[in-house]
Amino acid sequence: NRRIVLAARPRGLPTPENFRLEETAVPTPGEGQVLLRTLHLSLDPYMRQLMDEVPPLYAPSSVPVGEAMPGGTVSRVVDSRNAQFSPGDLVLGNAGWQDYALSDGQDLMPLGRMAQPSLALGGLGMPAFTAHVGLLDIGEPKPGETVVVAAATGAVGSVVGQIARLKGARVVGIAGGADKCRHAVEVLGFDACIDRHDPAFAARLAAACPEGIDVYFENVGGEVFDAVLPLLNIGARVPVCGHIADYNSETLPTGPNRLPLLTAALLQKRIRMQGFVILDHYGERFDAFRREMDEWVEAGKITLREDRIDGLENAPDAFIGLLQGRNFGKRVVRVAEA
Ligand code: NDP
C-alpha cells in the first residue's frame, strides 16, 4: 500500500520535499468497514489550504504532518464487512492520496455503472456542482448580461462559462495562455477569452466587456480581481468561490491600501458579493444539479475536459502544477486500472 503523506508544511508554493511516499501494509476492514482500492484521485486547490498549520474555517482540521494527504477518490470496494457494500462496487469516497483505505461507509456514494467514473470527481461532481450553485443561485445571470470567469478552462470555470452560455449570457473567460484561451472560445463556446499573462491584460479585458460586467464568478482574486473591479456594473453579482492567487501567500501584498476602492465600489454600484462553501449545499441541491448536468452532458451541450496524470507517485508534482496553472482541465490522477 503506497501512500503520500505531508512530510513538512510548505512555506509559499509547495515543493516535492513537502511530500513523502511511504509503503505500509494494506489495512484489514473491521466490523462495519469496507476496504477501498483507489482508482482515481482528485487534485483540488483546497488541499493547499489544508496543508497549513491553521485550517480554513470550512474544515475541522488541517492535515497532520506525517499523515496521508486527503482527497476525493473514485474507489473500488475490494473487501466488505458492511452490509451496504459488496466487493466490486464502485464508489465516490475520500480515500486520499493512497492505494488503499478503510471506510465505515458513511462518506461513500455508490456510483453504479458510469461510462467514465472519473467524471464523478469533476464534471459530474464537486467542481461542477460548485459552478452550478455559485453561478445560478448567487450569480443569477440573465439573458444578454455579461458574465466573466477566470481559471476559465479549469474544473469549475469551464462549467461556469458553459452554463452561463446556456442561460443566454455573454461569457468572457480569463485563462493562462493562448492555448487555453483558444479552447475556451473554440471548444467551450465562450464569446471571448483573455490571457491573464498578457501585459495588456486589464485593457484587453475592458475591451472584451464593452457593456461592463454583470456577474463576476470569483475563482482567483489577485490581479485579475483588480482588473475586474472597475468594470463591474451597477447591480453586479460576485459569487466568491475561490482566490487561488493568494493560497501560497504568507504575507499581505505591499503597496497602498486599496480597501477604500472596494468599499466605495460595493456601495455606489450596489454590488452583491457573496462567498459560499459547496459542502453546505449537498443536501438540498445536489440531485437537481446532477439531473440537469447529466442532461446537458448527454446532449453535448457541455464539454468536459479531463487532465489525467498517471501514477500516484506523480501526485505531488501534479498538485504543485495545479497551483501554477499547469493543468488544462480537471486534474485527476489515475492510481489503478478500473
Ligand atoms: P482549476 O482546475 O481551475 O485549476 C486552478 C487554476 O487556477 C489554474 O489552472 C490557473 O488557471 C488558475 N490560477 C492559478 N494561480 C493563479 C493566479 N495566481 N492568478 C490567477 N489564476 C490562477 O481549479 P478548480 O476549478 O478546482 O478551482 C477553481 C477555484 O474554485 C479555486 O479557487 C478553488 O479553491 C475554488 N473552489 C471553491 C469551492 C467552494 O466551495 N467555494 C469548491 C471548489 C473549488 P489559468 O492558468 O488558466 O489562469
From TrEMBL:
<dbReference type="Pfam" id="PF00107">
    <property type="entry name" value="ADH_zinc_N"/>
</dbReference>
<dbReference type="GO" id="GO:0016628">
    <property type="term" value="F:oxidoreductase activity, acting on the CH-CH group of donors, NAD or NADP as acceptor"/>
</dbReference>
<dbReference type="InterPro" id="IPR041694">
    <property type="entry name" value="ADH_N_2"/>
</dbReference>
<dbReference type="Pfam" id="PF16884">
    <property type="entry name" value="ADH_N_2"/>
</dbReference>
<keyword id="KW-0560">Oxidoreductase</keyword>
<dbReference type="InterPro" id="IPR011032">
    <property type="entry name" value="GroES-like_sf"/>
</dbReference>
<dbReference type="InterPro" id="IPR020843">
    <property type="entry name" value="ER"/>
</dbReference>
<protein>
    <recommendedName>
        <fullName>Enoyl reductase (ER) domain-containing protein</fullName>
    </recommendedName>
</protein>
<dbReference type="InterPro" id="IPR036291">
    <property type="entry name" value="NAD(P)-bd_dom_sf"/>
</dbReference>
<dbReference type="InterPro" id="IPR013149">
    <property type="entry name" value="ADH-like_C"/>
</dbReference>
<feature type="domain" description="Enoyl reductase (ER)">
    <location>
        <begin position="14"/>
        <end position="333"/>
    </location>
</feature>
<dbReference type="InterPro" id="IPR045010">
    <property type="entry name" value="MDR_fam"/>
</dbReference>
